[in-house]
């Protein structure tokens, strides 16, 4: 290494006795870690606008070279800083690509992602220029202009023709199964595990409580418990402390007591509702499908009817009279 140095440099190294001290002396001479060198490199980087005759690959290589020079001077530069430099030095023809990159979620923007998008944009610009040139020549010769064949597009990742890397299946990774060639929303393993959408249903059923008139209850698939707002309908009451969230009210409703309500249908069938929550503020009275099913019965909403069945017999069959929202 010393044989390649000039006599002036060798003279400046005459006082150094070790390889480490010689290397540090050469480093201070040629790299100049001081602020002046950093300012000069940053200035060159800020003025390095991409030229039309220079390819994007060469331009990015030149930017990366200056960034590495700054890093060798002890400057800490993150990938995001490099991305800022790259986007700052683009020409106006890349404005749409720059805007698309800036609108991406921050967790998706990486140095590799930005480089890939810029190379794709350069390919599209080249195709557009060729197409415009052919169209102009065709117009001047009174011929019909046709778009450029898509076979001129080349993916720089798989080297296949017909598309750019942005649409290459080999670059798409499923975040659910980890396989190439599809996205999570199209993954069979992901879509097959999605539970079917269940719509909450409700139907009104009337039965007689005590010796009074028939009282209307709503058989509701969305209710977690039986609920009633009429205290006089209860036969047994026990203290209870809790709250219930109601879909028609923004606040929670207080539950003070819980009890039993007995009644009978028009056909004489006796109805016994246990663990009914007494809620004075509730508008209407609800029979919970979930509680019916816990008691061993099945509930079927079919057409405009609701059917409650035991193991061997039908308990309730009634037509829809209204819905709860």
Automatic annotation (TrEMBL):
**Gene3D superfamilies, alphabetically?**
Zinc finger, CCHC-type
GO MF assignments:
nucleic acid binding; zinc ion binding
Q: Which SMART domains match?
A: ZnF_C2HC
Which PROSITE patterns does the record associate with it?
ZF_CCHC (PS50158)
Residue ranges annotated for the CCHC-type domain, each copy included: 174-189
What InterPro entries has UniProt attached to this entry?
A: PolX-like_BBD, Znf_CCHC, Znf_CCHC_sf
Is Phosphoprotein among this UniProt entry's keywords? no
| Record has Zinc-finger as a keyword | yes
Cite the entry's keywords alphabetically.
Answer: Metal-binding, Zinc, Zinc-finger
- Any one Pfam family match given in the protein's UniProt record, by short name: Retrotran_gag_2
What's the protein called, per UniProt? Answer: Copia protein
User: Where does this protein come from, organism-wise?
Assistant: Araneus ventricosus (Orbweaver spider)
Q: What is the lineage of its organism?
A: Eukaryota, Metazoa, Ecdysozoa, Arthropoda, Chelicerata
Gene encoding the protein: GIP_263
